[in-house]
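RECORD TYPE: protein structure
NAME: phosphoglycerate mutase (2,3-diphosphoglycerate-dependent)
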Amino acid sequence: MKVLLVRHAETEWNQRGIIQGHKDSPLTVRGAQETAALLAALASYPIACVYASPLGRAWQMGQALAGHFDCPLVAHTALKEQAFGHYEGMPSAQLRDEYPYEAEALFAKDAAFCPPGGESLAHASQRIIDFIQQQQQTAAHQTLCIVTHGQVSQGVLALLKEGNIDNFSRYAQPNASYSVFEMTEGQCITLRWGIATHLRTLTLHK
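PREDICTED:
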C-alpha cells in the first residue's frame, strides 16, 4: 500500500503563530494557493481514496484532493491534530515566554508530555499509525491519501522512519507539503518526507 501523508494548507492561526490543536481558523489567501500547487504536484498519483481529519482546515484540503482525483472522501477522528488542551488559542510565543519548559517539551523534546487538558504527541501519533495499519488490511495494493496536521505528522514520520518517536522535531512538515511511503505487512519500507518543492515559487513571492 502506498500512502501520501498531506498536511493542510496555511490558516490564519498558522500565519499568526497561534496554537490550533482541535480548534480551527480559516485558510489564508496563501493557503488557497498552496492547495492549488499541491494538486498539481500530485497529479500523477493514482489515488483511490482520501481520508481526512474532520477539522475544517484538513477537511477543506481533503475535499480539494477528492474532487481533483474524483475519488471518495472519508472523515476519521483518528487523523485529528494532537489535542493541546489549555494551550489552544494561545500564541506559541506566549507559551514559550510564560511556560518555557512546557513549550520545549511540547514542540521539541518530550513526545510523552501531555498538555493540561490535552493529549501527548506519542498518543496522538500512535492513533494515526494504528489507522494506517488498519487500512492496509483492506487496501494493500492501493494508493491512499491521508490529510492531517503538522505536529502529529512529525510524530508519525519519526515512528515510520526510526521506529521510535524521540526525534520527532526533525520531521517538520510545512503547510501543504506531503510525504510518500509504502507499507508492507505493517512495516514502512520506503519513506520520503516533507516534500515541498511545489511551494518554492509561492515562497519566493510571499
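COMMENT: The first helix runs from residue 12 to 16.
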